[in-house]
Amino acid sequence: MKYNLTKIVATLGPATSGPEKIKSLMRAGVNVFRMNFSHGDYQVHQQNYNAIRSLAKDNGQHYSVLADLQGPKLRVGNFENDKVLLKVGQTFRLDMDKKPGDETRVSLLHPEIYAVVKPGMLLLLNDGQIQLEVQDFGKDFMNTKVVVGGILSNHKGVNVPDVVLPIEALTKKDKEDLAFALDLGVDWICLSFVQTPDDVRMARQLIGDRAGIICKIEKPSALKYLDEIIELADAVMVARGDLGVECPIESVPFLQRRIIEKCRVANRPVIVATQMLESMINAPVPTRAEVSDVATAVYEGADAVMLSAETAMGSYPIQAVSMMKRIISKIQEDIYYERAMDIPSLPQEKNIATAITSAMRQLVTVLPHPGCIATYSVSGKTTLRASHERAPIPILGMTVSDKIANRLALVWGVHSVVTKELDNLTEVAPIAVKLAKEAKLAKIDDEIIITAGIPFAQKGNTNVLHITTVK
């Protein structure tokens, strides 16, 4: 199997901005480009977006573009000398005073935290490296005791585990970034720090169907509403950075596995993110543990694995993508990979669409030369159903819309192509054969398994299964 079924997401940044670097990422194996709106300016995002679309047109491929919104990031203010050393057992005050901080206090200009704080509550600063326990508080201050000390510098983040903060998922900056990203034409919007299903509903009102919504699971409160959030989202990201700060770090592996399985059951694409090949920011090869980490996400059936700082600001961005591709390819050669994908215990709806895709999955195991699956779908739902089955061959996702084709580039196993509107099944087979040969997904004497919905103009109606042989 030469075609990588698990997709690769690369974050753009100073190390990878510009047409030539983006072209190199495409050649290395990137399927999805992430624009991180916590950094960069609109001009750079615009130039990178234009480069992606232009290069995609030149090479006849489809790529997803993902806009990752910053979300309501909570941070301390400035220090008089830029940083302080906090010692275990000392007292430290957080307040609404804007003046520079010192060893005794610093500003925390987030009244929503003071509104929900309680004595004994832990505050985690600088990605959890510093821990403060609340002793007493008022409407504009907190007196804390340092439980875990260390150096605290300007603008470090603050996490408040196990509490739903009375803040909207989208800040004023997020709404401005969202409007820009939607006008740009991105395929996916990534929501940071989702706490409840209402956060997703609010975003849907603003986004509509202009882009798919990816919910980042990084707050313990989101885990309480996980099933409903998955149902409301178009895709999910296992955001292991803040998830590993706000939850016990030893729980991250099983939370990752749980989220992936729930997404597979619900037929929602799922991305695993954060520190996958972290050492490759500064080194040309990863650690053995990082290789195993990527492999685990692939074995668990994630649709995509993501590179963050590795490609945004690392010294070896192309090597990081190439390494990720090599890991995926190697895992796909393993007999245990196919067994891991075939999970009969996954519950499914009992309807015609499920029957068709289940039969399709079975055909892959009994046909002598299965080349690929071909789907014809206006909305992309038929293609998503085919991907849900995790058959060990690629999926030729035919659609009439560039918008849907770009969005499907994130989905496990899918090679998306745009074709003309088709009226009947007799038109689909020869076009599927032609496109599969051009994409090198099938060769002479291979079988192509075709699924579609009749009538073709009707969305979300998978009811046809057809087999054709490449001649």
Rounded to the nearest angstrom, the radius of gyration is: 24 Å
Share in β-strands: 15-25%
Name given to the CATH architecture of the largest domain: Alpha-Beta Barrel
Overall pLDDT: 93
Poorly predicted sequence stretches spanning 5 or more consecutive residues: none
CATH fold assignment of the largest domain:
TIM Barrel
Report the span from N to C terminus: 21 Å
How many strands in all?
Answer: 21
Q: Count every helix, treating DSSP H or I runs of 4 or more residues as helices.
A: 17
What is the domain tally? 3
Main sheet properties: 8 strands, parallel, barrel
Indicate the percent of residues in helices: 25-40%
Protein topology:
Blueprint lengths: L6 E5 L7 H10 L3 E5 L5 H18 L4 E5 L14 E4 L4 E5 L9 E3 L3 H6 L5 E4 L4 E9 L2 E8 L1 E4 L4 E2 L12 H13 L3 E4 L5 H11 L4 E6 L2 H5 L1 H7 L2 E5 H7 L5 H15 L3 E4 L14 H12 L4 E4 L1 H4 L4 H16 L2 H7 L10 H15 L3 E7 L4 H8 L6 E5 L2 H7 L5 E5 L6 H14 L8 E6 L11 E6 L2
Parallel strand pairs: 1-2, 1-16, 2-3, 3-12, 5-6, 12-13, 13-14, 14-15, 15-16, 17-18, 17-20, 18-19
Antiparallel strand pairs: 4-10, 5-9, 7-8, 7-11, 8-9, 20-21
What does the model show?
By secondary structure, this protein is α/β, with parallel strands linked by helices. It has three domains: 7-72 and 169-335, Alpha-Beta Barrel (TIM Barrel); 83-159, PK beta-barrel domain-like (M1 Pyruvate Kinase, Domain 3), CATH 2.40.33.10; 352-469, Pyruvate Kinase, Chain: A, domain 1 (3-Layer(aba) Sandwich), CATH 3.40.1380.20. It has 17 helices and 21 strands. The protein has helices at 19-28, 42-59, 111-116, 172-184, 197-207, 220-224, 226-232, 240-246, 252-266, 288-299, 309-312, 317-332, 335-341, 352-366, 381-388, 402-408, 425-438, and strands at 7-11, 32-36, 64-68, 83-86, 91-95, 105-107, 122-125, 130-138, 141-148, 150-153, 158-159, 188-191, 212-217, 235-239, 270-273, 304-307, 370-376, 395-399, 414-418, 447-452, 464-469. The protein has an eight-stranded parallel beta barrel with strand order 1-2-3-12-13-14-15-16, surrounded by nine helices. β1 (7-11), α1 (19-28) and β2 form a beta-alpha-beta unit. α7 (226-232) crosses α9 (252-266) and α10 (288-299) packs across α12 (317-332). The longest helix is centred in the N-terminal third of the chain and has 18 residues, at 42-59. The two termini are 21 Å apart. The mean pLDDT is 93.
